[in-house]
Amino acid sequence: MAKQVEQEIDTPHQSEFKDVEGRQHELEDVSLLDGSDPRIKEIKRKTDIRICGLLGVLYAMAAIDRVNLGTLLILIFFPFYIVFQPPMIAIARKIRPRRFITFIVVAWGLVTVGHGLVKTWRQMLALRALLGILEAGYFSTSAYLVSTWYIRREVAKRNSSFYLLGSMLGGFGGILAYGLQQMNGVAGHAGWRWIFIMEGVITIILGLPAYVILVDFPEEAPKSWKFINEEQAQLVIARINLDRRDVITPPFNMRHYLSHAKDWKIWFFAANFMLTSVVNYAVAYFLPIVLRNELKFSVAAAQCLNAPCYVFAIILGVTESYFSDKWNLRAPFFLLNCGLEILGVCVLGFAKPSGVRYFGAFFIVGPAFSNIPFSLTYQANNILGQWKRAFCSATIVGAGGIGGIIGSLVFRSQDAPSYRPGLYACLTAVGLCIISMCTTSAYFISENKKADRGEKIIEGDPQFRYTY
Predict the structure, then answer these.
(1) Which InterPro entries would you find in this protein's record (predicted)?
(2) Which of 342, 369, 392, 463 has the lowest tally of Cβ within 10 angstroms?
């Protein structure tokens, strides 16, 4: 009898203890995911600067380079940039981003200096091909690295920050090139040579500190110059596993890596990125032409007027990404930007007053450049597995290279002054973006409903749900 009373007394206390312990774990999980844990806030402050800030500055140097040469040399660059995406990101995963990114940035800086010292066109073509190989590893590795450090509803702000910061700084590249060209004749070099020499030197100077500043993947971060300690690294890993449970990276297997190409969604993600890139590259080449030839601004004025459009892009993109992460919505913001792009193309291409046309440029550059990080975030939110994530990053950035080829060709000098084929190409690209985004989002909504009813497991994880 005494034993029975003892059991009746102990059992409620044991049950109560388990309940409290369970609630404590649940509260801890919530604080890790919503970022309210002060330890997580401290880690994110560090990573925002050392990852997103640095990647944005380095990306600016890549962006500046691509609009300084004629069409032929641009076309030489992109095939190598596209083909070398998958192997480069696999190498980055193997040898760690800090070493990989430092090497390729310094190397492409040296190659850029070489552009200013060449003696023949054949040498220039060879350097452009080499530059395409080196830059192939940068953007996809950067996007992949960001996705490994943040949970799904935090990556929009970070993708926007690093990409749009780089694009904004790159938007001042025209002013930099115009200034460097004034060195014409110094040391016997033509002005165009000084553009490449100095831009290459700047790239090297910025690239070298990356070895100390940049960090590797979370599980390797404690080795990155004591950036965070082992306990902090485990906190990051814990919250990533709570969010999507794919921190562990299995050994690399080529067949398994390439098998991800069977997932049709990846090609829709790639289409979003490619078609958005068409508009991005087209406006990068077309806007200075319009400002100089059609709106009759001087070369110096055209270069200066180009930059505010990119400042607007970072304001728009960062603002949208803040609310996108807050509400955990991607497609509505992407589609909103598509609508603004259509408005911008129509105003810039078909309006008459110069001021109105220039105003239209803001509504092409801002939304088009903002949709690049949204494309990255949309795909990163809707895949599981480290090697699939790496393959997808490489695929969509490679597709962006195809968009770069198209965008650099659609505005032809023989189409002046109306440039109708280029304008129609941009409108077509935006229209196809809308179709692609609506198709995948409708599928995601349908699949989530099936998973909620217990009819399907998404991406092999019963708890995973698509983000749209």
Answers:
(1) MFS, MFS_trans_sf
(2) 463
Instruction: For 252-281, give the secondary structure using H, E and C.
Output: CCHHHHHHHHHCHHHHHHHHHHHHHHHHHH
Using one digit for the tens of pLDDT, what is the confidence trace for 287-324? 877 777 777 777 777 777 888 898 899 999 999 999 99
116: left (phi over 0), alpha (psi -120 to 50) or beta: alpha
Task: For residue range 392-429, list pLDDT tens digits in order.
Answer: 999 999 999 999 899 988 888 788 778 889 999 999 99
- The model carries a pTM of 0.84
Domains of the chain (ranges; CATH) run: 42-243 (1.20.1250.20), 262-461 (1.20.1250.20)
Name residues whose C-beta falls within 8 Å of residue 259's C-beta, 6 or more positions apart in sequence. none
pLDDT of residue 225: 63
**SS3 call for 458:** strand
Question: For 98-122, how does the pLDDT look when each residue is reduced to its tens digit (9 = 90+)?
Answer: 999 999 999 999 999 999 999 998 9
Dihedral sign from CA coordinates of 441, 274, 144, 154:
negative
Determine the pLDDT at residue 224.
65
Q: Kindly give the residue spans of alpha helices, DSSP state H, lying in 173-229.
A: 173-181, 191-207, 210-213
- The answer to whether 56 and 169 are in contact (CB under 8 A) is yes
Between CA 112 and CA 406 the distance in angstroms is 24
User: Which residues make beta-bridge pairs with 461?
Assistant: 458
Q: Output the pLDDT for position 70.
A: 61
First-to-last alpha carbon distance for the chain, in angstroms, is 61
Give the number of residues written for the chain: 468
